[in-house]
Design goal:
The protein is mostly helical and 96 residues long. It has helices at 3-20, 27-34, 40-52, 56-73, 77-95.
Length: 96
């Protein structure tokens, strides 16, 4: 087998792995990694997958989880609306 055939084969194997996401951890594993719930080799694998392999699919999943976590920390708009309404009513009563 020539060098170009071997390179082509490696590229094909690599592209199949990426397209099929063979090495991608399950989203539950990614969530556990984010919350420091993985230890040892499992944590090492996920770190390698994200940092060294730079998997765009798993990076996107991590970003989605982070955005959801951030949204949960933000005050709900309903609470802000109610506070605005109460403060407006209180200000109008004082103005009488």
């Amino acid at each position: 087998m020539s060098d170009s055939s071997e390179e082509s084969l490696l590229f094909t194997v690599g592209s199949v792995w990426r397209e099929a996401r063979v090495s991608c951890p399950h989203p539950d594993i990614l969530r556990a990694y984010m919350t420091d719930g993985l230890e040892g080799r499992a944590a090492d694998f996920v770190a390698f997958h994200l940092d060294e392999s730079q998997c765009p699919y798993c990076a996107s999943t991590i970003e989605d989880f982070a955005a959801r976590d951030q949204a949960k920390k933000a005050p709900p708009m309903v609470d802000l609306r109610d506070k605005l309404l109460r403060s407006t009513v209180a200000a109008l009563r004082k103005a009488r």
